[in-house]
Amino acid sequence: MEPVIQVRGLHKAFGTHEVLKGIDFAAGKGEVVCIIGSSGSGKSTLLRCINLLETPDGGAILYHGKDILTDATINMPQYHAKVGMVFQQFNLFGNMTVLENCMTGQMKVLGRSREESMENAMKYLRKVGMEAYVSAKPRQLSGGQKQRVAIARSLAMDPEVILFDEPTSALDPEMVGEVLSVMQKLAQEGLTMLVVTHEMGFARAVADKVVFMDQGVIAEEGAPEEVLGSPKHERLQSFLRSML
Amino acid sequence: MPTASTSFFGWVAFLLQKYGMLFLRGTGMTLLVALTGTAFGFIIGLLVAIVRATSPVPTLARKSFAAAVRCALLKAIQLLLAAYIQVFRGTPMIVQAVVIYYGAQYAGVYMDTTFAAIFIISINTGAYMAEIIRGGIFSVDKGQFEAAHAIGMTHWQTMTTVVLPQAIRNILPSVGNELIVNIKDSSVLNVISVSELFFQAKSAAGAYYRYFEVYFIIAVIYLILTLTVSRILRFIELKMDGPDNYVIHGSQSDSRAEIVVSRENAEEVEKRWNQ
């Protein structure tokens, strides 16, 4: 199977601090990859590089075999539309209602009509259970509700892959479940997902592959039952113990 | 004609009757130059702030000669704009007025005084507005820039649809300040004979040597202008904030349909809705 996203020898440093020291991995179509690791291990930076929110210093990021860093035939806005991102802090547009948040990208980037955008936005707001709140402003919503809207905003662009950067880390404990269940539903429907998470239960239940990052490299990867069930790496063992 | 024994109020009444039209025309001119000057200053400030907030490093990893040239050009323009702000914030408007008005005559350009007044207020205000708007742009949290870029919006689209609407709302109180300052400080333009309120008062006061009475009258007029403007701005702020309530939309068979949620009943409605 040809991978949708493939990362080869990715390097990234902030000043003299090397955050990514040569990352290689791939995610195939419909695959759910959970990236785990302690903070500072480079998980978020990896996702942000794939989305070009950070510019990598070296290596390649292949999208359907084309390097997004060098291949001039890739249209960047289109690439961003195809590779969505959900953030820890939701980052909803504060000046827009829930519905407008899910429409604006479709109209501005994909050039869809207002009617088509609205219809599509409503479809995904229904999917995340937020259709009743279309006229609310982000500041009027709870954290879990905001994150579900953020997921709908991403989905409304009809992406091929969504990158989730610790989507439940900023939520109150009782709101984690509603967001995870939406994500589980998306995984079952065959969306390709790269998820940076501290939710081991979610990783175990939903992931096709778990990647453990440690100090800028991938220390261990494999099926969740292997990586989480019988970890070989000593740092992974102590990391998993600390998560209990 | 009042006599030496005429009271303060007698003089005020007399002067209002005699020079009422003059004060009114002066008020009109003051409002004209302050409002248009602030409006143009706002536009100048907006453009300057957007250029100054543009990152000279291309966000894409792709490096090319054309990108490098664009980068250098942007940096040069940013330097010029920084100089503009420093110069116009660092010198008094009364000095700017004289230098520009008479300086232009040196170059053979004889400006209409009204045009000169609007021009001077605009570029002076533009320098302040640029900094105010830059602050407003930074007040919008960085995550929203990232979210907009992450769905493929360009820098310009991000600015116009996401960042500036929020930045402008956040800086509205400061913009109101600028307008109020301009209503008052346009009085310095009397040095280039702009026929605004202070200039008119000067000629009215000179006619009967009634300085206190005349300046008392225009003080009241300035106060009325600034109070009215502050009220209008506050109203616009509230309008921009929109309602505190929102409607939960349900189906027609649903008893919970169309519930208005306000801060007071939010939790209760949520509970009912989630049941």
Structure commentary:
The complex is a heterodimer of chains A (244) and B (275). With 244 residues, chain A is an alpha/beta fold. Chain A has 9 helices and 10 strands. A 6-stranded mixed β-sheet of chain A has the order 6-7-8-3-9-10, with helices on both faces. In chain A, strands 2-1-4-5 form a 4-stranded antiparallel β-sheet, with helices on one face. Chain B has 2 domains: 21-198 and 214-242, MetI-like (MetI-like fold, Orthogonal Bundle); 245-275, no CATH class. Chain B contains 9 helices and 2 strands. Chain B has helices at 8-53, 65-89, 93-106, 113-139, 142-150, 155-185, 197-208, 211-241, 266-274; strands spanning 246-248, 259-261. In chain B, helix 1 packs antiparallel against helix 7 (197-208) and helix 4 packs across helix 6 (155-185). The longest helix of chain B is centred in the first third of the chain and has 46 residues, at 8-53. The radius of gyration of chain B is 26 Å and the shape is flat. Classes of the chains: A alpha/beta (244), B mainly alpha (275). At the A-B interface, helix 2, helix 3 and helix 5 of A face helix 5, helix 6, strand 1 and helix 9 of B.
Helix and strand topology:
The complex is a heterodimer of chains A (244) and B (275).
Chain A: E1 3-14, E2 17-28, E3 32-36, H1 43-50, E4 58-63, E5 66-67, H2 76-82, E6 83-86, H3 98-108, H4 114-127, H5 143-155, E7 161-165, H6 173-188, E8 192-196, H7 200-206, E9 209-214, E10 217-222, H8 224-229, H9 234-243
Parallel strand pairs in A: 3-8, 3-9, 6-7, 7-8
Antiparallel strand pairs in A: 1-2, 1-4, 4-5, 9-10
Chain B: H1 8-53, H2 65-89, H3 93-106, H4 113-139, H5 142-150, H6 155-185, H7 197-208, H8 211-241, E1 246-248, E2 259-261, H9 266-274
Antiparallel strand pairs in B: 1-2
